[in-house]
Amino acid sequence: MLFIVAIIITSRVIAQRKKAPATLLEVELLDEIVSKEFQIQESKLSFENSIMLGSGASGSVFTAKYFNIDVAVKLVMMQTMGLDNDLSDFYNELKFLNQNAQHMNIIRFFGAYKSEEKNSMGLVMEFCSKGTMSSYIEKHTLPFEQKLQFIKGIASGMQYLHHHDIAHRDLKCENVLLDANLTPKIIDFGFSREIKENANRSLNLTSNIGTAAYCAPEIIQLQVNINPISINTPETANSNQSQQSDSTQKILAYNKRCDVYSFAIIIYVIYFQKKMPYGAIQDNQILYQVATDPTFRPKYDSAAIPENEKWLLTLMEQCWDKNPDSRPSFEQINELLSQKSENDFNKELR
User: Are residues 240 and 323 in the same domain?
Assistant: First the structure.
């Protein structure tokens, strides 16, 4: 049976900046794009007896019906949109899903529409009945084999994204859904960007993104450089202006390896079934520690890990290495995961 999901997006504040409302021109442009390229029949969509499935930074999720099939829709409320944030995020997600969502571990996209009555635009996507990875691992005790299947599925989806030069930029367990067969599906591509790497793997991407526990140290360091916290006095004004000028000249180093770092935290959360990898430590403290202390990572007792499972945590530590160049690619990660699975299968045959 085919399931589809609908998500309602409210305004998002990024980096605590005030947002200018979207101009009429911008809204009309997006409306035209939706109408020409992604249109579905809104008349076939019903929110009668709709149930809220969850809410987050990108909005709230509700059930719906489309052609009498269970669905959900991601709606952008136009009156709350900001030019530099929600509107562009919505378009990025729309464009990505339409062009790239052709993988079993990427959420499936069916179309979009403009709602005149609600003054909103919506995405119609695959519905995953088991909810988020984060909520599922909180409620179930998982055998190692199931944890490994989850990790392999996410790695496979991420390899697909990187193969198409897409950086997710907000990879976390809350952005992975599970369908009825417990197949992981990567979601939330509002922050995603198409990337073209040069020889130094430098990218022209913004850095005001991500989730504290999953954020790579180089991104936090970059954020500090780009947005220095300072007090302008007559004595420091010239110095601060020079510092900010130098920062704006830098090519942002957000590359595919930052997603690999986030994937390492996902391995930790799934393996230890621990939703908060750093426990009760506050986000600002996590960011500071990760940025300044290369040994600051989620803790665990290696002596308590079964010998035949230690390889996975070795991979995890390689993925969260302080040096982005030392982290494996998702192609290398998947080769290792496939090799380990094949070895386990061969052992069972003996």
Answer: yes
Q: Flag whether pLDDT at 215 surpasses 50.
A: yes
Residue 90: which CATH number?
3.30.200.20
250 C-beta neighbours (distance < 10 Å), count: 11
- Statement to judge: residues 115 and 156 lie in one domain: no
Q: In sequence order, what are the residues at sequence separation of 6 or more whose Cβ sits closer than 8 angstroms to the Cβ of residue 83?
A: 19, 20, 21, 22, 23, 26
Q: Which of 82, 259, 92 is nearest to 191 (CA)?
A: 92
Per residue in 253-276, pLDDT tens? 457 899 999 999 999 999 999 999
| Distance separating alpha carbons of residues 110 and 122, to the nearest angstrom | 11
What global pTM score does this model have?
Answer: 0.77
Q: 289-317, pLDDT tens digit by residue? A: 999 999 999 999 999 999 999 999 999 99
